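Forgive a beginner's question, but might I ask you for the amino acids of a protein and the tokens describing how it folds?
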Amino acid sequence: MSSPLSRALHWLFTTALVSALVAGAALAAFDRWVLRPALAIGTVDLAEIYRAKEAQFTRLLTAPGGEDERQQALALARSFSERLPAALDELPLECGCLVVVRTAVVGSPYARDLTGLLRRKVDLP
């Protein structure tokens, strides 16, 4: 038969091992689902998007033509004003990150530029 001391040591070792495994799993889960997503930052250059769309709008308005080009330019502006907020709402869901204006972030190694993705969402070349 085993002595009471060896049974107590075995129980103590088993308890310590299980506690260490549970703590390690909890730390890994916290890192995976809380810490890393909080560190992920996506940036967009809204000024660039507005400048590009404004240039597109201006080209349509100043093109020789007439009322058709003017109506097309107005439809483009109306469509852009509806698509931009929706596209900005979709970005955090797609990248799984916090999305901020590029000028708000200085030197973060976790920042990812999402301006190209936003350009495609609002039909800019």
